[in-house]
Every structure is written in C-alpha cells, then in structure tokens.
Amino acid sequence: MSKLTTVIIAFLLLIGCADKTALSTDIYITNDTKSRLMPLYNGIEAQVVQQKITVNYDNSEHSFIVVLSVSASELTIAMLADFGRLLTATYNGKTISYEKSSFVPDSFPLEYMFNDIQLIIYPLEILEKYLPQNIHVEDSMEGSAKMRSLYNNNKLFALIKYYDNIGEFNNIVRNYSYVIEEI
Length: 183
Known about the structure:
The structure is a single chain. Helix content is 17%, strand content 50%. It is of the alpha+beta class. An 11-stranded antiparallel β-sheet has the order 1-8-7-6-5-4-13-12-11-10-9. It has a two-stranded antiparallel sheet with strand order 2-3. A hairpin with a 4-residue loop joins strand 12 and strand 13 (176-182). It starts with a helix and ends with a strand. Mean pLDDT is 84; it is low at 4-19.
C-alpha cells in the first residue's frame, strides 16, 4: 500500500472520531505496581505507520490492521478489522480520548495499549526517568535482534524483540503477546 493511501486512510479514520470519551491514564504496569502513562516524548520523530498486529491472549489469536500516528503532541491509533473500524484512540499526554465500535468490549484496556506502545518506542533514558523505581529496563542484542527486557523487583515481566520490520511484545505476567509487522 502506498504512503499516500496510508495517509488518506489515517485522515479518514481520525476525522471520524468527533464524539469521543475520555479515560484515565492510571495503570498497573505490573499486577502490583501502580503507575501512570508517561508524558509524550518531544524528541520522537513524527510518523504514520501501517501495521498488522496479531494479538495472542487467553488461548485465542486475533489480527488487525493498525494505523499508528506518533508525534510529540499525541499518539493516535486506529484499529481495523475485516468488517470495518474497531476503534480510534488518541493520547495527548494527559488523557485518552476514543471512539469504538460495538464489537469492542467496554473492558478493552486502551490505557494499557498506550503503555505498551510507550514501552516499545520510547528511548531507554525516557523510560528510566518516568517508570516507578522498582521497574528496571535493559536494552541488549540477541543475534541480529534488539531486545528490551523489563523487570519488576528484578523479576522479568515483559520482553520486547525488534527485528527488521517485525516486533514482538510478550507480557509474561499477564500472559499476552503481540507480533507487529510493518505493511
């Protein structure tokens, strides 16, 4: 798909969200560590990417097309399925506003999805600045893959692997994972 097509899809998805609902940015980064979504990072390169995300949770697998818009002023995500748009959500550094279809359960954890995005794309020094003190992050290499390991009181709770155009996110404690492929 061309970049122009991606931009047009992103624009149409974003303008369709005039009636939004706001969410709190309080989260439990692990089952016992309360935190908040981190502020937006003003050093991030503005970009719009189209991805296929496969989510594994509770012995089920679901795939979606996602358009992610990242800038210093907001993170916006639009999720699409075969039957249409599932949701559009924006985090502006203070609140999450969203619009979702009736196919998305009320319990869908948007704030945790934004937290995972921050854990994936933010530089190590920003994570260390804003994460609770008992959370430790290490970046390393495994062969040709970059890795990010997240620890709660020295116990691994999440592992992120970055390949050329594929990323893997595995939350060990909450038993879910994503495979993210650029398309």
